[in-house]
Amino acid sequence: MTSFRTQPCAWPLAYCGDGGQDETCASVAALSPAMQTIVQNAATAYLWNITGRQFGTCPLSIRPCKKSCLSGYYSTYRGYAWQNTNLPYFGDGSIGWGSVVNPALIGGQWYNLPCGGCNNDICSCTYVPTIDLLGPVASIDTIFQDGLLLDPSTYRVDNYRWLVRTDGHDWPTCQDMVLATTEANTLEVTYQVGVEVPDGGKLAAGVLACQMAKAACNDGSCQLPQRIHSVTRQQVNVTVLDSYDAFYINGATGLFAVDSWVNSVNFSRNRAGTRISSPDRYDRRRTTWQS
User: Fold this and answer.
1) Where are the alpha helices (DSSP H) in the chain?
2) Is residue 83 part of a domain?
3) For residue 135, how many C-alpha atoms fall within 13 Å in the half-sphere facing its CB?
């Protein structure tokens, strides 16, 4: 993802009919392929911006490497241990290099708890090889290790960020960044980052694209509000502005299927309550993606 994007990487559109996402409405189908793309991109870009750019996924490829392997260069691993920046969140199960270390306040005393590194009642987790990805992770596309494509059944994603190895093998802690990912001693993870577009957003995009296509072709059946109406009364022509000002101020389109979904999304986002985090809170894991 980049900060200069002006439209979402991916925003599916849903239209009426039996053709699924590949089908378009009549007004869009009547356009040239290039114009169809423009109209659909305009509709999805509007919805993406008006909802705060919170939906849509983008492909991202990274080559994880532990900080100590880069000899002073920037590390793609994110997050470090409590009170010790030499221990990244990647490990081999030991308390030393590579432990998953989390702070815990026990009886008024802070402890660094490496997951899998204690054998008493303080912790009960079992070590699993984990990489901390830039999230939220919607899905994993491919993982190449030593030039070979890994079977998707050998890993999963927890909490929209933790890439967990499940086949009993460990993730490599170092790799040769000079080599292509088709060579040995390399690791590349390609995944979709972001939040998938809800069904309501797909429907809203389809409806808006249809009306934008009509507006582009000056179709009189277009339901988007027009700025000027000409009214003739007793041989007197009067030109008046419509009520679009209200829509413009609120960022609405005048289309119920579109505006109702946008308002519901923005309302829930703006009315989100205050969240409080405590160092005593246990960070529970749950699987959020699995092949």
Assistant:
1) 26-29, 33-50, 199-216, 244-250, 256-270
2) yes
3) 17
Residue 25 and residue 74 in one domain: no
Q: Give me the chain's average pLDDT, please.
A: 77
> Is 12 within the bounds of a domain?
no
Q: Are residues 50 and 88 in the same domain?
A: no
Indicate the pLDDT class of residue 65, thresholds 50, 70 and 90: confident
Separation of first and last alpha carbons in the chain: 24
Which domain covers residue 219, as residue numbers? 20-55+197-270
Burial of 163 (0-12, 13-18, 19+ CB in 10 A): buried
Tell me which residue of 258, 173, 253 sits closest to 207, measured CA to CA: 258
Which domain-ending residue is among 177, 195, 213? 195
DSSP state of 21: G
99 or 30, which is more confident:
30
Give, as one character, the DSSP assignment of residue 182: T
State the Cα–Cα distance between residues 50 and 31, nearest whole angstrom: 26
Same domain, residue pair 29 and 132: no
Do 130 and 50 belong to one domain? no
